Amino acid sequence: MLEQVKQSLREELKKALKNSGVREDDIPEIGFEAPKHIKFGDLSTSVALGIARLLKKNPRETAEELLRNINLDKAVISKAELAGPGFINFFLSDSYLNALIRKAAEGEVFYSAGTGAGKKVNIEFVSANPVGPLNVVNARAAAVGNAIANLLNNAGFKAHKEFYVNNVGNQTNTFGRSVSLRYEELLGRKIEFPEDCYGGEYVKEIAKQLIAKEGDKYLTKTEEERIEIFKPVGLALMIEDQKKSLRAYGVEFDLWFYESELHERNELERAFNKLKEKGMVKEEEGAKWFTSTAVTDKEGKPLDDKDRVLIKSDGVPTYLLPDIAYHFGKINRGFEIIVDILGPDHHGYIGRISAAVKVGGLLQENFRVLIAQQVNLIKDGKPFKMSKRQGNFISMDELVEEVGADAAKYFFLRRSLDSHLDFDIDLAKKQTEENPVYYVQYAHARICNVIEYAKKSGVLTSDFSLVDYGLLKAPEEAELLRKVASFGDCLNHSALNFAPHLVPKYLEELAGLYHSFYAKCRVVTGDKELTAARLALCFGAKNILREGLKILGVGAPQKM
RNA sequence: GCGCCCAUAGCCCAAUUGGAUAGAGCAUCUGACUACGAAUCAGAAGGCUGCAGGUUCAACUCCUGCUGGGCGCACCA
Q: What is the pTM of this model?
């Protein structure tokens, strides 16, 4: 809704700029900010500052001229004024704000900007190897990926969540061997457990399940035979386990894509041929290479710093070829925007995959790789190293058990993706009661309670069309109202920048404003008109809190 | 050695992508419950945004060079 206001202001400003003698080509993209201070209005633009240089005029004079030439819809903008070095500040009219709060109160979706225009977005995240339980970084990626998908959908995109299962390759053989060894051990054989095998308890659990089901009948087989049998069974159990963890966490995927399918459908060969057709394959030292350094960005800089082996000299493909095939597949399935969320140890991988995707025909700006930075676990005041091999890592399940899914997700989503995150386990446990998620959830529960009270008192209204919003004049009311009005802005900005952490921020501010309002302005009083207006504000805030939390994948309890 | 990420209040983090007086929470201090939930509110205090330059009307934000921390740099995945 606010987006429309911006658009019409933009057009007005363009006209005014032309009027001032700016050539069409020189008109810059006109952006608006929401000023921090209420005295600077609701929307602010700094075009005059930029354009003044071009016109060789004083910025304030330029702004004044623009202000004279601009036609404002009084129903939407009550005033526009010059401020500071040359800002133009716009103030939303009461009637506009009233219409907006009414929509919010009625629960109407007024905050989707629709900028996505139905574009199909593929967002791949977590994609952990199926050789162990999900860990804390996976939990971070899961929370963030899920929230980004929700944000994109809200902004009018069609987001599709995908989990890529690496069920082929060396690590799966190691995994099969680990299971086999534990199987022998549990049945009384003496074994040497090598360091490069997976030593986690979960491997024993899988072996136990195999024994419970099938007994000791595989003891007579050779290790190779056992691995062949145990590998698929073990992987399937592991994948089930990962699915279960994610379900308990509240994150569902649209598709679990198995690498093995690529092999079965000859997609590797097809991808290889496509690269070859495009002249992006060379042969050297008996291996076949992807000349990724030959792919350049707009400035002509290579996307990758080294060429990469696709097929080794022994004829076996590297991991990269299936990955490329997978990404080509995404393009073929009609996705217009592709997003990968990778772990911190894969940032070196961005270059080669970006190069491949570009060769695959997707514009570089439509491929985004986000790195979920590392999560350092701190326990007893000391760093806690994660290692799948040693098996002494904290799993996603354990994290959820200790702090709860809502709190865990919220905790991850508060931080921007690219910040390294110290996760103090003891503190997270201790903080359960002072975690900001409770602050936001409490605001929601509190509103529900007020509404409940209003209902009991017989003053609840469901028709907001008769409400006189002009009564909401206290500073606490005005600020809350404006915050409600800016929800769409927050979501849109957050979606377009893949920055879900802005949402918790917004919600905490909204919750804070509500708490202040609550403390200062009693909702249910003898004044019927005022009660109705304040109730409308409550409904608006409540709807937004619920929607915002929903986007984050966090619950909005009515009682706590 | 090369590349990527990070450095902001005592602690943990924001800052609408270059905007106006850098903001929340935790911790600390002061005050507020016989009317809708005190998991709350009001207030105080806390800063040379790691250091040094540069770009411009404007820099936490961009460029260069340092310092310190993390992670990568396979014919592994």
A: 0.93
Cβ of A55 near strand B (distance < 7 A): no
Contacts of A109 (CB under 8 A, 6+ apart): none
**Dist. CA A479–CA A486, nearest whole Å:** 11
A170 CB less than 7 Å from any atom of strand B: yes
Distance between CA atoms of residues A237 and A401, nearest Å: 21
Tokens of A421: 């995150």
pLDDT in tens, A268-287: 999 999 999 999 999 999 99
Calpha distance A420→A125 (Å, rounded): 18
Closest CA to A495 of A159, A32, A28: A159
Alpha-carbon gap, residue A242 to A265, rounded angstroms: 25
3-state secondary structure of A31: coil
d(CA A293, CA A476): 58
Q: Nucleic chain B: which protein residues 331-390 of A have CB below 7 A from it?
A: 344-349, 371, 373-374
The predicted-structure confidence for A283-321, as pLDDT tens digits, reads as follows 999 999 999 999 988 777 888 989 999 999 999 999 999
Nearest nt to the CA of A451 via C1' is B36
Q: Cβ atoms within 10 A of the Cβ of A547, count?
A: 21
Is A406 within 8 Å of A554 (Cβ atoms)?
yes
A239 touches strand B (CB under 7 A): no
Nucleotide nearest to A385 (CA to C1'): B70
Distance of C1' in B1 from CA in A376, Å: 28
A451, A460 in Cβ contact below 8 A?
Answer: yes
